[in-house]
Amino acid sequence: DRRGLRLGLLVALVAALVVAGPETSERLRRAVQPAFGAPVPPPSLRLEAWISPPAYTGAAPVFLPPEGGSVTVPAGSRLQVALSGGRGGVPELRLGETATPFRALDAGSFTAEVPLDAGARIGVRRDGQDLAHWTIATQADAPPRIVFAEPPGPAQRGLAIRLPWRAEDDWGLANARAEITLAPRPDAPPLALELPISGDSKQPRGVAQPDLSAHPWAGLPVRVRLVARDNAGQEGHSDTAELTLPERRFEHPVAQRLVELRKSLSLDPLARRGVERGLDELSLRPEDFEHDLTTFMALRSARYHLTYDRRREAVEEAQALMWQTAIALEEGRANRTARALAEAREALREALAEAERQPPDAERRAELERRVQELREAVRQHLEALAEQLQRENGDTMPQDPQARLMDPQELDRRTQEMQDAAREGRTQDMQQQLAELERMLEALQNGQVARREGGNRNSQQQQRQQRGQQQMGAIQDMVQREGQMLDRSHQREQAEAGQPQQQQRRSPYGQQRQQQPQAGATTPEQRAAEAQRDARQQRALRRALGELMQQFGDLTGEIPEALGRADQQMRQAQEALGQGGDPTPHQQQAIRELQEGAQQMAQTMQRQFGQGQQGQEPGEGQGEASRGQGREPGGGQGRDQAMGQGEGRDPLGRPTRSEPNSNDTGSDTVVPGDAEALRTRQIQEELRRRGADRERPPSELDYIDRLLKTF
Question: What residue spans carry the region label Disordered (predicted)?
Answer without folding.
Answer: 392-430, 451-539, 567-699
